[in-house]
Structure formats: C-alpha cells, structure tokens
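Researcher: Next entry in the queue.
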Amino acid sequence: MIAAVAQQVRIPIFVGGGITDPEKAYINCKAGADLIVVGNAIEKDISLIKEMSAAVHGAGVLSR
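Model: Structure for this entry, 64 residues:
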C-alpha cells in the first residue's frame, strides 16, 4: 500500500500503526514512507528509540 501511494503522490507520506520494531520501520521507509510514527512500542521499551532511528537512517529516508 505504501509503495502504491508513494508512486502516485508528491507529498510527504506519514506512516503509523503497528510499527513495533526496527525491521518494520525499515520496511515501511523502503516502501516509501517519509516519516514513521511510533508511539506504543516506545512507551513499552524506551530503548527502541535508538534502534528505530538507526533503522530509519539506514533506509535512507533523510537523504531523499
């Protein structure tokens, strides 16, 4: 779904919901998400902030 939307629009795509680990963040970014919204996962495990950040940066989102 994210990839299909990314091909049709020229605006930033925000994706949230169900992103509970760095792998999911990475996959969503590679599919075309420009911004990942994470809430509950980080509330449960604050150490995920660094891991999620590394995953998003590894996907190259900030370099687009």
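Model: The CA atoms of residues 16 and 37 lie 4 Å apart.
Researcher: Noted, moving on.
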